[in-house]
Amino acid sequence: MGSIGDIFKARKALIAFITAGDPSLSVTEKLVYDLEKAGADIIELGIPFSDPLADGPIIQASHQRALKKNTSLADVFKLVAKVRKKAAIPICFMLSYNLIVQYGEDKFYADCDKFGVDGVIIPDLPPEEGARDKGQAARISFVAPTSSEERIKLAAEKSSGFIYLVSVAGITGVRKKMEGSIGGLVDRVRKYTKLPIAVGFGISTPAQAKEVAKQADGVIVGSAIVDLVARKKFKAVVNLVAALRRGVDAV
């Protein structure tokens, strides 16, 4: 595996989200290796927080389980250091800006470089705010169906790595049916950037992944994976990611 940019040059990207420390950091480490083998191109590690923004009940519960194990941001950096000894798959942190402030912003971005974090997604930090030029990690911005043209343009200008396009106005979760026109949303964003566009929120089946991949450069799956992790169905996690991979590649 190479950088985030290399991933999108090679093929449509499958991005898998798991919450770090759920059910334990050792299981999270093994899941990273298993997800890579199953066909994930990029891993999003959710950093546990008491009030995760935009997440539905499934991922909120995973944060609470990880917090009960006292999983900290420092612990997750140590986890990435261990993973980097065995795997080069790009890893992105998805976390609240509050955690970065508590950790120390300069130290956070320095440790991203030190330990090998490839990208940072901060849902509660507007694109016009925060440190954009600290460290090497890509800054990945959210764009939503409700975003104005001005906000889309600004997010595109301030982003690197890829654009995280939210498929629906709402929270994360498993949905039986994709809502609205993904193609129309992607086209709105493409007017302002040459960066890859990855779509997330609500994608849970290979058929949905295939439909999204027809329009976007990447597919992000979180709640469906986290739900299986919560039930300790780790073989099913691998099987789901492998099936999602086939769906994305079928485009």
Provide an overview of this structure.
With 251 residues, the chain is α/β, with parallel strands linked by helices. The chain has a single domain, classed as TIM Barrel, CATH 3.20.20.70. 45% of the residues lie in helices and 14% in strands. The chain contains 11 helices and 9 strands. The chain has helices spanning 4-10, 25-38, 57-68, 73-83, 97-103, 105-115, 149-158, 182-190, 206-213, 223-230, 234-249, and strands spanning 13-19, 42-46, 91-94, 119-121, 138-140, 142-143, 163-166, 197-200, 218-221. The protein has a 9-stranded parallel β-sheet. Helix 9 packs parallel to helix 11 (234-249). The two termini are 22 Å apart. The model is unreliable at 170-175 (pLDDT under 50).
Short description:
This protein has helices spanning 4-10, 25-38, 57-68, 73-83, 97-103, 105-115, 149-158, 182-190, 206-213, 223-230, 234-249; strands at residues 13-19, 42-46, 91-94, 119-121, 138-140, 142-143, 163-166, 197-200, 218-221. The protein is of the alpha/beta class and 251 residues long. The protein has a single domain, classed as TIM Barrel (Alpha-Beta Barrel).
Total DSSP helices: 11
CATH architecture: Alpha-Beta Barrel
Catalogue the unreliable spans.
170-175
Question: From the alpha-carbon coordinates, what is the Rg to the nearest angstrom?
Answer: 16 Å
CATH superfamily placement: Aldolase class I
Q: And the CATH topology? A: TIM Barrel
Give the SSE string.
HEHEHHEHHEEEHEHEHEHH
SS-based class:
alpha/beta
CATH class: Alpha Beta
| Number of E-type strands | 9
Helix content: 40-55%
Instruction: Label the overall shape.
Output: globular
The average pLDDT value, as a whole number, equals 91
Q: How many domains comprise the coordinates? A: 1
* Span of the ends, CA to CA: 22 Å
